[in-house]
Amino acid sequence: MKALLLVDIQNGFCPGGNLPVLDGHEVVPIANRLIESGKYDLIVASQDWHPAGHGSFASSHPGKQPFELGTLSGKPQMMWPDHCVQGTTDAELHPDLKMGKIDLILQKGENHSVDSYSAFRDNDQDALTGLAHFLEGQEVTDLDVCGLATDYCVKFSALDATEMMPGVRVRFIEDASRGISPEGVAAAIEEMREHGIDIITSRQVLDG
């Protein structure tokens, strides 16, 4: 059973959004080709879904600016611009994404006091989204991961997949993902590789 996990391909992380990833919109047509390829038995999408005033927002911390390091619930936290607030256009999946073939959309980051990069659990590794349980219930053996952003939500989702679903082969689709910084992307790819995650391209999927 082969599954595709599309991480946070939302307006907020694309040009014009509140936390745009450089060229983030370019992953959409690649993701659509993967969705429509027939190579996957199951397709899941995650969605950042923050309440207004979330604790990871710089605006919730007087004197803090976006992209400064601060604290949240006593732990180090990157301060982000307000983004992907529940019910806003910023939080919607990209309108060009082929959503008709997505089997499950799961939302994350709803706890005001904890950020949630991974599609599997929050950053405290405490509250689970239920994704691992769902994939295991579907007897998934192979999981491909891509989306936004490589050096944050995609990386942590891929790493959690390897830890929480031992025995499942996890692959990162590099050209179907974009990151916050080139340095962050390079470090994320190396970290994923060190944890046994295969680094592939969409062409390898489509030609496989």
Automatic annotation (TrEMBL):
InterPro entries: Isochorismatase-like_dom, Isochorismatase-like_sf, Isochorismatase_Nicotinamidase
Enzyme class: hydrolase
Pathway annotation from the record: Cofactor biosynthesis; nicotinate biosynthesis; nicotinate from nicotinamide: step 1/1
Highest taxon above the source species: Bacteria
One GO MF term: metal ion binding
Single GO biological process annotation from the record: pyridine nucleotide biosynthetic process
A Pfam family assignment: Isochorismatase
Residue ranges occupied by any Isochorismatase-like domain in the UniProt entry: 3-204
Keywords assigned by UniProt, alphabetized: Hydrolase, Metal-binding, Pyridine nucleotide biosynthesis
E.C. designation(s): 3.5.1.19
Family designation: Belongs to the isochorismatase family.
PANTHER family: LD05707P (PTHR11080:SF2), PYRAZINAMIDASE/NICOTINAMIDASE (PTHR11080)
Entry protein name: Nicotinamidase
Organism, as annotated: Rhizobium grahamii CCGE 502
